[in-house]
Structures are given as structure tokens and as C-alpha cells.
Design brief:
- The chain is α/β, with parallel strands linked by helices.
- It has four domains: 248 residues, 3-Layer(aba) Sandwich (Rossmann fold); 147 residues, Rossmann fold (3-Layer(aba) Sandwich), CATH 3.40.50; 182 residues, Rossmann fold (3-Layer(aba) Sandwich); 33 residues, no CATH class.
- The chain is 37% helix and 17% strand.
- The strands form six sheets. The chain has a seven-stranded mixed beta sheet with strand order 3-2-4-5-7-6-14, sandwiched between helices. It has a seven-stranded parallel beta sheet with strand order 18-17-19-20-25-23-24, with helices on both faces.
Length: 643
């Protein structure tokens, strides 16, 4: 059947539940996390499949942030110590993207340290944005998992989301480790036809011996100083040994091509494996041709901890090993460690060649053409003048040298009708900061009245001002923050700014949804009247609620320091907030335009019956309407009065 990346991840707990039932196990499943690209729609896909999930005792609880989700998931593995007549164990799935992995670092480390229950398992679905397409910086989560001692499996295709996902569950249940599944954007956003079945993939549970005795996993959630040293020993010397034994028994790392004449070997994993196969195919080097060219190929499924035995066996009699991977040399460093000290040395190149010249790029991601351009010249040293390699390199060189006609560009902007068009406006002379979210477009919007000069990470809104304010001549700053960010983690920032005595206005852009990840409803969100009362208890000096429809607040129970204003009074309100000593809050009440239109089409909101009409017969083409509204649907036309 055809499955997208997210559909495969929805099917994963269902297939595991069916496997467990067939094996006579009564298991439940608990799924929690926070949406973010490339897994931005995973929670919505789970919600759409809710009736089917309920039939298989699968519970999905969206979390307010990723750390909350990871800590909640650790509770599922405490089951053995509590009465559980209905289930034998719980399989838990955490989902999030790079920033969420970082935010959850301590929770993930504690959870993995504590272990998994007898019939339980935990899989971390780690969405990685290598190209920073929807993140404030590029992310590579491998090192975070290494720090926590969490094993990492890396699928090479959308179909392997399902196969390696099932292996990850079995590995976690076998070893007691939480296991991460590295899910990159190109695969999560893609799809393919996948063969599915009750016994696909075939899973082998190995008998693991440690110091001559059978390995038995255990859990310990006490984390008591001193006693936790034994847990550390068990994690890295026993549980990781079980992880490697599982990987060997199920051939997660495989030598795909080899011959006795091989001189150079390629080690790669995940998406880079797929890119490498495509590049080799473009060279005319299919499996048989690789053998004739003296090229050996190792595909790694378990990228941490790396199996040193298979690396040493693979590299035997080779002159050179080329490690192909995106981002920093995570796999390469482990390969070098495994091969260090061998009687017969082998050259290893990856991020840099033997002269220290950059080879495979660290920045951004790679595709098969990038791999071909870097790998081809290395292979020519062992297969001189190979016609397929030379032909493909010449084609790529010609493509790179093409000159394209320059086309007019347009700076990205907010959607038509987006409330940020109004809420992010500034007074002359004001400076604003931003944060991740739809409103981050303000960093490249050129209009000074909507432009932001810097951004923070999600959850850092306003805090840099506490460090900067004592040393700058500037008295006041504006910080934009979406309501999704506010209820995710930024609410505490307002409390900190109050405690620090900062002069700052937080602009809360309240649209009711986590708009940039799929319009999810806010977990733990509060309606505006209640929010104003909470902010008053934190010590906020003044709160302004700005809205197009002040009548909606006639009977609202607002804080004593809060007032409601129409949009027309926005400039006066901003001036008064800036002049107020201490922390002030501006709340713009405006629904996400896309979500508003969706709900209107579904009959959930009334269709508007008041419109603005610009009469072309009297229009002077001055552009004032566009300057006021920032609406991208306004298109200039030539008229009799102006062109």
C-alpha cells in the first residue's frame, strides 16, 4: 500500500499492537509530544485515526511542550511497580523536532537511565530539519542522543519508518533502552508503496550473555546519588551490549556489496544511503559493477552505538573507507574509533579528505547529485577513467555552470487577512524582537513598522532584554510572542521580566491555534479574560486587549489592569504601554486567517457580509491601501488616473 511518512508512523503502533495480541500480550500504547516540522501533522493524523486507535488501546495525549511529554512517557514504564490487571505493558512513542529534543534533554536522559518495564518499550520519533527549512537553526540530534545513551536507528526510506520503527520497539523491549528513530524531512514529507504484513519485518530476539550470565533488564526510577552509578554501568556495559546483539541478530547493519578485490569501501546510513545508491546508479555502478570496480558497500541501520565488529570486518584489506553522511561526522568519528589501532591501517575520509580539505559538506543537507560530485573523484582513483563516472561528473558540471535568467523576487509575507498584518505594527522609533512562528516573517519584511531586528529560540522570548537592559541606553523593547509559544514555555519569561524589573512590552499575538504546524488547538491554553487575570497576579503593570470587535468583551471578567481597545486606537495604546514603567502586555485578539476560512467553509463560523471595495475607476494607484493592510491579495492595476 502507499504510505506517506506520517501515515507510516500512525500505522506503527497499530502494527505493534496486532503483533503483541498475536503473541498473547495485552499491551497498551501511549503517544505524546509536540508538533513541529517534519512531524508537524503527526498529531492531527493520529486524531483522524482516533476510532481505530481506541480499538487497539492506543492513547494519544498531546502535550503542552516536549519536556512534559517525555516525562509523562517515563511514567508508562513504571507499570511493573503498580497494579495493572488490564495490560501487561505499555509501548510509548514520543514525537518532536530538534528544538524539542534539546528542550527535553534532561527528561529523555532520565527516562532512558530508568529503563523500560518488562513488556514495555519507548521509541523517540525525532524529526530532524537538516536544512533549517522551518527552524531557527539546522538540527542534528545524534549528539543529544549519544549524550543520553539512547540508541539511534536511521531509516533510509519512508517504508523503513515502519520496519525500523517495529525494530526500535523490539530493541527497546529487549534491551531496556529508549530507542530513537532519526526521521529527516525529505522522508517524513515523502511517501512510497510499502509491503505490509503481520510478520513484516521478521524479528529475532537474541539471547544476550553478560559476563557469563543471561542479561536481564531492570528499571530504577529513584535516581538516588551514588546508587545511580550502578545504573550508569548497566546502561553502557549491559544494555548497550543487548542493543548490539539485537542489531546483529536482525542484520540491521549489512554489507550490501563486497568482493575479494575490493580496495575502497563506502559506509553510509539512512537517507544518505539512498542518496549514495542513486549516485552510484547514475555512475552506472549497480551491485555487480561495484564489485568489478573494487568498491565495497556497508549500510548502517544502527548509527549509535556503532557496531565496531562489523566495521573492522568490513574494512579488512581495504585501502580507504569513505563515510557518506549529512551534517557533522557522527558516524565517521565512530568508524575512526573502531578502526584505530588495527595492525594494518586504513585511510578514513568523510567531512574532510586526507589533506584536510572539506569533502562532504557539514552545512545544510545533501542529495544524490551532491554525493556524486564528492564521491565520484574518490572512486576515479580506484577505477581510472571509468566512463560512467566521468560522464555523470561532466553532466553535473554542465548543470552547475548554466546561467539562468534572473526573475523578479518577492519577499515572503503574511497570508491575506492574517492578524499579524496589524498586530506586529510598531510606532516610529520602536524596536521589536521575534521568535519562531508565522510572525517570524517580520525578520525579512522590509517595512520598518513591521520589521523585527532579532529572534530567540522558542521559549526564549523577552529574556535577552534582561541581560541587555542594564548596559544599553535604550529604555524599552517590544517582544512579539505567539499564543502557541506562550503556553508552550514562554509564560514564565513574563514572570522573570517582572522579577528583574525590566521595561518591556510583550505583544501576545493571540489567534487561538498553533498556526504554523497545522492549526492545532492550544494545549493548556487559556481564554483571554482568564489570561489577563493570571498576568495581573504575575505583576504585569498594564494590559491592553486590542480587537476588531470590542463588543465581544462587554461582559468579560478582565483583570483590573486590563482594558479593551478597538484597532483604530492601536497607536495610542502602544505609546502608553511603552511609557509605562515595568512589564506591560499587549494582546491582539485575531483568529488565524487560514483557519478562519477553513471554519467558514465548514459552516463552523459565519461567512462575512461586509467587504472593502476599491473602485478602479477612481483609484489613483497610490498604494495606501496596501501600506495600511499589508494584504498580499491587493494587486496594483493601471487606471486612467495613474499607472
Amino acid at each position: 500500500m502507499y504510505l506517506s511518512g506520517l501515515q507510516a508512523l500512525v500505522r506503527l503502533p497499530l502494527d505493534q499492537s496486532r503483533r503483541d495480541r498475536k503473541a498473547g500480550l495485552r499491551t497498551g500504547t501511549f503517544i505524546s509530544g509536540y508538533p513541529g516540522s517534519p512531524l508537524g501533522g503527526y498529531d492531527l493524523a493520529l486524531q483522524h485515526a482516533s476510532p481505530l486507535l481506541q480499538q487497539h488501546d492506543i492513547v494519544h495525549v498531546p502535550a503542552g511542550n516536549e519536556e512534559l511529554a517525555a516525562t509523562a512517557i517515563s511514567g508508562t514504564q513504571m507499570l511493573d511497580a503498580y497494579p495493572h490487571s488490564r495490560v501487561d505493558g505499555v509501548v510509548a512513542l514520543w514525537y518532536g523536532k530538534g528544538p524539542g529534543v534539546d528542550r527535553s534533554g534532561d527528561a529523555l536522559k532520565h527516562g532512558n537511565f530508568a529503563g523500560t518495564s518488562r513488556h514495555g518499550a519507548v521509541v523517540v520519533l525525532s524529526g530532524e530539519d537538516h536544512e533549517a527549512k522551518s527552524s531557527t537553526m539546522p538540527y542534528q540530534d545524534d549528539y543529544a542522543f549519544l549524550s543520553a545513551g539512547i540508541p539511534v536507528l536511521y531509516p533510509a526510506s519512508t517504508g523503513e519508518f515502519l520496519a525500523l520503527g517495529l525494530h526500535a520497539i523490539a530493541m527497546s523491549r529487549c534491551s531496556g533502552c529508549w530507542v530513537a528513530l532519526k526521521l529527516v524531512g525529505a522522508l517524513a514529507d515523502g511517501g512510497e508503496t510499502v509491503e505490509v504484513g503481520p510478520d513484516r519485518p521478521s524479528i529475532v530476539i537474541p539471547e544476550v550473555m553478560v559476563d557469563g550470565r543471561p542479561f536481564r533488564k531492570s528499571t530504577d526510577f529513584t535516581f538516588f546519588p551514588g546508587l545511580n552509578i550502578e545504573t550508569e554501568r548497566q546502561l553502557f556495559y549491559e544494555r548497550h551490549q543487548a542493543v548490539l546483539a539485537y542489531a546483529r541478530a536482525n542484520r540491521l547493519d549489512r554489507v550490501e556489496v563486497r568482493s575479494a578485490r575490493d580496495r575502497v569501501g563506502i559506509i553510509t546510513a539512512g537517507k544518505s544511503y539512498a542518496d549514495t545508491l542513486q549516485a552510484l546508479g547514475d555512475f552506472g555502478l549497480a551491485a555487480a559493477a561495484l564489485g568489478r570496480a573494487g568498491v565495497r558497500l556497508l549500510r548502517v541501520g544502527l548509527i549509535y552505538p556503532l557496531d565496531a565488529e562489523i566495521i573492522r570486518e568490513f574494512a579488512r584489506d581495504l585501502e580507504e573507507v569513505v563515510v557518506v553522511e549529512e551534517k557533522r561526522g557522527f558516524l565517521e568519528a565512530q568508524v575512526k574509533e573502531a578502526l584505530c589501532g588495527l595492525p594494518r591501517g586504513v585511510r578514513v575520509v568523510g567531512k574532510f579528505d586526507e589533506r584536510g580539505v572539506p569533502l562532504f559538506p557539514i552545512q545544510s543537507g545533501m542529495d544524490s547529485d551532491v554525493v556524486a560530485e564528492r564521491l565520484g573523484p574518490r572512486l576515479l582513483a580506484y577505477a581510472p577513467e571509468h566512463p560512467g563516472i566521468m560522464k555523470r561528473l561532466a553532466e553535473l558540471g554542465a548543470i552547475r555552470s548554466r546561467r539562468y535568467e534572473a526573475l523578479p523576487g518577492r519577499t515572503p509575507n503574511y497570508c491575506s487577512g492574517c492578524p499579524h498584518n496589524i498586530s506586529t505594527r510598531l510606532l516610529e522609533g520602536e524596536l521589536a524582537w521575534g521568535s519562531p512562528g508565522c510572525h517570524s516573517f517580520a525578520s525579512i519584511i522590509e517595512q520598518p513598522e513591521r520589521h523585527i531586528v532579532s529572534m530567540t529560540q522558542l521559549g526564549g522570548e523577552g529574556l535577552p532584554w534582561i541581560g541587555l537592559a542594564p548596559f544599553t541606553d535604550r529604555r524599552h523593547i517590544v517582544q512579539n510572542v505567539g499564543d502557541g509559544s506562550l503556553f508552550h514555555s514562554s509564560y514564565l519569561n513574563i514572570r522573570f521580566c517582572v522579577a528583574a524589573g525590566a521595561n518591556i512590552t510583550f505583544k501576545i499575538l493571540y489567534n487561538g491555534y498553533v498556526a504554523n504546524t497545522g492549526a492545532q488547538e492550544l494545549v493548556g491554553g487559556k481564554p483571554i479574560p482568564e489570561l489577563t487575570r493570571l498576568l495581573e497576579t504575575e505583576g504585569v503593570k498594564r494590559i491592553a486587549v486590542v480587537t476588531k470587535d470590542p463588543k465581544e468583551y462587554r461582559t468579560a471578567d478582565l483583570a483590573s489592569v486590563a482594558r479593551v481597545y478597538p484597532v483604530e486606537e492601536q497607536d495610542r495604546v502602544l505609546k502608553e504601554l511603552a511609557e509605562t514603567e515595568g512589564v506591560t502586555v499587549y494582546i491582539y485578539d485575531g483568529v488565524c486567517a487560514n483557519e478562519r476560512r477553513r471554519r467558514q467553509k465548514r459552516g463552523l463560523l459565519p461567512v462575512p457580509n461586509t467587504f472593502v471595495v476599491i473602485n478602479e475607476e477612481v483609484c489613483e494607484n497610490c498604494g495606501h491601501c496596501g501600506a495600511l493592510t499589508n494584504c498580499m491579495s491587493l494587486q496594483k492595476v493601471d487606471t486612467e488616473l495613474s499607472s
